[in-house]
Design brief:
This is L-threonylcarbamoyladenylate synthase. By secondary structure, this protein is of the alpha/beta class. The protein is globular and about 45 Å long.
Length: about 190
């Protein structure tokens, strides 16, 4: 299957409220429309994760990021430009997202992806996409397609074809929390 067709199929499923498995700029992810609370609830259920533990989402650009965070602090833009490794920022003032995706303190974990497949998926979908590791909570993250458990494979509505053959180490993103008062806290290196 061509990447373009794979992306079209994934978008079709997400537009109908379904959940997908897809390769990201880090590990394989479980994804859905980040603005659809019912789809987000399905992701929590599949991961067997308490919805008080917020999920992150991916976007394709600075402009899209600003659609989901009320005021992006200057330090966030500096970090986005400076980091080499995929880095998820936890930012205050989340807006226009499913309520069950936003943390109790009103923040959201969000990352601009530059990896070709996930970037194109986000660009064509024109919305933020949930991106949580393709595993049941507490189990190791799936670095490659072959590492994904049957339970997760069976629990999604579509599994992307792209990058299934990869067998190389992938690691989760760094996570940095940027508070409105300017405090910077590294959650995961």
């Amino acid at each position: 299957m061509k990447q373009e067709d794979d992306i079209k199929k994934a978008i079709e499923v997400m537009r109908k409220g379904g959940i997908i498995l897809y390769p990201t700029d880090t590990v394989w992810g479980i994804g859905c429309d980040a603005t659809n609370a019912e789809a987000v609830a399905k992701v929590y259920a599949l991961k067997r994760r308490d919805d008080s533990k917020a999920l992150i989402c991916l976007v394709d650009s600075d402009n899209r990021l600003q659609r989901y965070v009320r005021n992006v602090p200057d330090v966030a833009w500096q970090l986005i430009e400076a980091v080499e490794k995929p880095t998820t920022l936890i930012l205050d003032g989340a807006v226009n997202l499913a309520p069950n995706l936003i943390a109790e303190d009103g923040s959201i974990g969000i990352r601009i992806t530059k990896e070709p497949f996930s970037h194109e998926l986000c660009y064509r979908f024109q919305k933020a996409i949930v991106s949580t590791s393709a595993n049941v909570s507490g189990e190791p993250a799936a670095q490659n397609y072959r590492d994904i458990s049957q339970e997760i494979l069976d629990g999604v509505d579509y599994v992307c074809e792209s990058r299934r053959q990869e067998h190389k180490p992938h690691t989760p993103s760094s996570i940095i929390k940027l508070a409105a008062d300017g405090e910077v806290k590294v959650i995961r290196k």
